[in-house]
Amino acid sequence: MSERTRTILLLADFHRAGVEPVIHELKDRLETISRVELVDLRTKEELRRHGGDLAVVLGGDGTLLSVARKMAGNEIPIFGVNLGKLGYLAEFGVDDLDLIIEMIRENRVGFSRRMMLCACLKNGRENFVSLAVNDVVVQAGPPFRMIELKISIDGLELTTIKGDGVIIATSTGSTGHNISAGGPVVDSSISAVVLTPLNAHSLTHRPLVVSSSTEICITAERVNSGSAVIIDGQVTCPLGSKSVIKIGPSENYFLLVHNPRYSRWHTLQTKLNWGIGVNYKDEVGS
């Protein structure tokens, strides 16, 4: 594919502080090597209709997760330019615009293929279906009484969790809500799913890592009026008693472009401070 026939999508909330000057600079520079299409995320249009070859998303990790779900099926490599707080998935900063241009011009865009989950909720007569990049969370919600969830894997009953809920996370999402709840960090290159109970009223319920091909079925035996299923911390659907959630691998993948200036462990080390040693004081007289 020649440079001039290639289309690059630039996606952002154009009204967000700091976005306008960056996106116009990037557009002007990219137009010297490719066709460019601007997409304002505030318009809530159907993103799948945009048929670009590469995408550059300006925003935080939340913006990147939203775009990945909405563009599922296109499967084009996505650059994340961090304008948010953490920037765990969005590995590029505003200072990396020269690098982004160079990578695209020289056609050396390295990316990883991240699995996504598909969650299907049967809530009485209503059905809710959504993809997830990070996680699917079943949360107790108000009035914050303990809920009861029956879990089965590939049709085989596993356990019943009584507590505040459960997190079903991808390896990409293992460093999100999952890690805060005591779940393991999983190498993002591994296709796996983590099941992490939330405050289970038991000493024996511990996080479980299963194959990415697994189908997890959650039956809501007892829930609260405010209980809900939450997708990537962004999309919420009410959860009723006896509702059934089936979670399995999606046929779609999220193609995340990596910043070649950093190793695969750089973000874990610098953003989450993983592996930082104890700051021992010198012994007296040593």
Could you walk me through the main structural features you see in this protein, from its secondary elements to its overall organization?
The protein has 286 residues and is mainly beta. It folds into 2 domains: 3-110 and 258-271, Probable inorganic polyphosphate/atp-NAD kinase, domain 1 (Rossmann fold); 116-251, Sandwich (Tumour Suppressor Smad4), CATH 2.60.200. Helices cover 14% and strands 38% of the residues. The strands form 3 sheets. Strands 6-5-16-13-8-9 form a 6-stranded antiparallel β-sheet, with helices on one face. The chain has a 6-stranded antiparallel β-sheet with strand order 12-11-10-7-14-15, with no helix packed on it. It has a 4-stranded parallel β-sheet with strand order 2-1-3-4, with helices on both faces. Strand 14 and strand 15 (235-238) form a beta hairpin. The termini are far apart.
Summary, kept brief:
The chain has 286 residues and is mainly beta. It is built from five helices and 16 strands.
| SSE pattern, N- to C-terminal | EHEEHEHEEEEEEHEEEEEEH
Mean of pLDDT: 92
State the domain count. 2
CATH architecture of the largest domain: Sandwich
Radius of gyration over C-alpha positions, nearest whole angstrom: 21 Å
CATH fold description of the largest domain: Tumour Suppressor Smad4
The CATH class of the largest domain: Mainly Beta
Structural class: mainly beta
Instruction: Compute the number of helices.
Output: 5
Largest sheet: 6 strands, antiparallel
Beta strand %: 35-45%
CATH superfamily of the largest domain: Probable inorganic polyphosphate/atp-NAD kinase, domain 2
Net shape: globular
Strand line-up of the largest beta sheet: 6-5-16-13-8-9
Low-confidence stretches: none
- Terminal residue distance: 65 Å
Give me the count of strands.
Answer: 16
Q: State the share of residues found in helices, binned by percent.
A: 10-25%
